[in-house]
Specification:
By secondary structure, this protein is mainly β. The chain has helices spanning 4-9, 19-22, 112-125, 145-148, 183-187; strands at residues 30-32, 39-47, 52-53, 57-76, 82-89, 96-105, 131-135, 140-142, 157-178, 201-212, 223-225, 237-238, 247-248, 261-262, 266-270, 283-286, 297-298. The strands form three sheets. Strands 2, 3, 4, 5, 6, 7, 8, 9, 10, 15, 16 and 17 form a twelve-stranded mixed beta sheet that branches. It has a three-stranded mixed beta sheet with strand order 12-13-14, with no helix packed on it. It is globular, with a radius of gyration of 21 Å.
Length: 303
C-alpha cells in the first residue's frame, strides 16, 4: 500500500527504481476472501469485429429481449468521416416502446488508452438518463440521437455502451456509416460486415455479474483479496452466437492470460463487513484485450 497523497504533494515520480517510493511500500500478507457463486443477469452484445472497419455496414446484430447492453469498440479505417450508431429493428406488427437506460461513449481519438479510460470513468461516475424510443412495426429506430451526432475521423477509435430494456424481441445492431447518412435509410441496405480474424464479437448471457462474500470481512484479519477472472471460480462466459470460441472474461486487477476475448462485463462485489470496517471494492471494469497492454481500468473505492 502506498501513501499516495504524501508522494503526490512532494512531486515524486513513481517507479520501482525510485528508492523513495519503494521505501514507503508496506509489505503485508494477503488472504483470499471466500465468495458465493457468481450470479449473472441480462444479456451483453459485444461488437469489436471488425475492429478496424474499412467498409460501411452492420458491425454486429442479434435478436434480444429484456435487460440488454451493447458495448462497441471500432476504429474508422476509411479515409472519410463516419459515425457509429445503435439501431433497433422491430420484427412484430405492433409498435414497441424500447427503454434506453444509459448511453455512454468516449470522445473519438487516436489514443486508444484515452478512449478506454474515459469510457470506464463515464460509465461508473456519469449520470444515467432514461428515455423511451418508439420502434415502428417492421421498422427501424435509432436508440440514441447523441451517437448520431458524434463524428469519427479517419484512424480514430470510437467506443461506447448502451443499456436498454426491451419488452419484446428486437434486433439490436451496431452500425458504421458515412457521417451524413440517414441511419434508417442506411439500414434498409442490409450491408453486413464480415468479422475479422480475431472474431471478437458475440452475444453473452449475463451483462452484469454479482459476487458476495460468504463470511463478513474485518480489517483485523489483514488485507483480503477477491480472485476474479481466473476461469475457474469466476467462470468465463462463452458466446451464444456463431463464434463459440469467443469468450468474455470478467474484469481483473491482475492480468491473467486466458482464452482470447475482451473484458467488458460489469462486476459488483458486495462485502458484508464489521460495523467499523470501511466500504471496500464496489466495482471493477477493464477494457483491455488479453495479451496486450492494459488500455484502461476503473476501480472506484468508496470510503
Amino acid at each position: 500500500m502506498l501513501p499516495l497523497m504524501s508522494l503526490e504533494a512532494a512531486g515524486t515520480e513513481y517507479g520501482a527504481d525510485n528508492p523513495e517510493v519503494m521505501g514507503k511500500i508496506v509489505r503485508s500478507r494477503m488472504l483470499p476472501i471466500a465468495m458465493t457463486a457468481p450470479h449473472d443477469t441480462g444479456t451483453l452484445l459485444f461488437s469489436d469485429s471488425p475492429e478496424y472497419a474499412d467498409k460501411d455496414g452492420i458491425l454486429y446484430v442479434d435478436k434480444v429481449k429484456g435487460d440488454t447492453r451493447l458495448y462497441f469498440y471500432h476504429v474508422n479505417q476509411a479515409n472519410y468521416p463516419r459515425k457509429i450508431v445503435v439501431m433497433a429493428y422491430n420484427p412484430s406488427t405492433s409498435e414497441v416502446s424500447a427503454g434506453v437506460s444509459g448511453v455512454y461513449y468516449a470522445k473519438p481519438s487516436t489514443s486508444y488508452y484515452d478512449v478506454g479510460k474515459d469510457l470506464s470513468t463515464l460509465y461508473y461516475e456519469g449520470n444515467a438518463t432514461y428515455n423511451r424510443v418508439s420502434v415502428p412495426p417492421l421498422g427501424y429506430a435509432i436508440l440514441s440521437d447523441r451517437l448520431n451526432r458524434v463524428i469519427v475521423a479517419p484512424d480514430q477509435l470510437f467506443s461506447g455502451i448502451v443499456n436498454m430494456d426491451l419488452p419484446e424481441d428486437m434486433y439490436v445492431s451496431a452500425v458504421i456509416m458515412p457521417a451524413a447518412a440517414d441511419p434508417v435509410t442506411f439500414m434498409k441496405k442490409q450491408q453486413y460486415l464480415a468479422s475479422d480474424a480475431v472474431k471478437l464479437r458475440g452475444t453473452f448471457p449475463g451483462m452484469d455479474r454479482y459476487l458476495k462474500n460468504l463470511i463478513p470481512f474485518t480489517t483485523e484479519e489483514g488485507i483480503g483479496y477477491v480472485l476474479i477472472a481466473d476461469g475457474i471460480q469466476d467462470r468465463l462466459m462463452p458466446s451464444t452466437t456463431a463464434f463459440p470460441k469467443t469468450w468474455a472474461i470478467m474484469a481483473s486487477i491482475t492480468s491473467y492470460r486466458l482464452k482470447p476475448g475482451e473484458r467488458g462485463f460489469s462486476t459488483t462485489i458486495s462485502t458484508p463487513r464489521a460495523e467499523n470496517m470501511p466500504a471496500w471494492l464496489k466495482s471493477v471494469m477493464m477494457t483491455e484485450k488479453v495479451g496486450r497492454p492494459a488500455k484502461s481500468w476503473n476501480c472506484p473505492v468508496r470510503a
